[in-house]
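Input sequence (83 aa), recorded before submission:
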Amino acid sequence: MFTRHIEASIETNKPIIVHTRNAENETYDVLKKKSKKNKLKILIHCFTGSKKFAYNLLDLGCYISASGIITFKKSKELAETFK
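Predicted structure, token format:
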């Protein structure tokens, strides 16, 4: 279904908004494969992933949004990633 969602964004020339949890490698692999063939407009919504994942997404030209989670005391690593 994720691939079909991406294909729909390509067909309609609309951005794809991705909300992903605990699937960094899988998400990145699919987006990388699809973005090689197409110029995707990607927003990673409510990002809570690792710094490495963030940099990989930025290399694909993704935009990344944060939520209030970055203000939580236990979210220092996430806050640092956005910094």
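Checked by second reader. The two ends are 33 Å apart (CA to CA).
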